[in-house]
Amino acid sequence: MLGILFEMLAGAYLPVSAFPKALQYLAYLLPYTWGYDLIRYYSFAGRWQTILPVWQEWAITLVYAILYTAVSRYLLGKAERLAKRSGLHVI
Question: I want to staple 44 with a disulfide (CB 3.0 to 4.6 A). Which of 19, 48, 60, 70 is the partner?
Fold first, then answer.
């Protein structure tokens, strides 16, 4: 249910521009928002009015990808160290 809520907020079902301003600002924090907007842009052969210029949306998507990759690598390393200290790596 939480996943569907995030999809709705990111604009999977309705364009983000149809939301109230407060929800739009929340949607801009989600990486899915920019992906959905780019998918609409390319699906309509460039005739979709994007939130920001296309190159900026690609840049935001790239920054999110780098950020989430770095955070996930850090957290995975932390979980592996904890597993080794606890003896869980033997299982």
Answer: 48
pTM for the structure as a whole: 0.80
Give dist(CA 32, CA 35) in Å, integer: 5
Rounded Cα distance between 87 and 77, Å, is 15
**Residues in the chain, how many?**
91
Which domain, by its residues, includes 75? 2-90
> Tell me: the pLDDT tens digits for 43-60?
999 999 999 999 999 999
Measured distance CA(91)–CA(88) in Å, rounded: 6
CB 65 within 8 A of CB 72: no
Q: Pick out the chain residues at pLDDT < 70.
A: 89-91
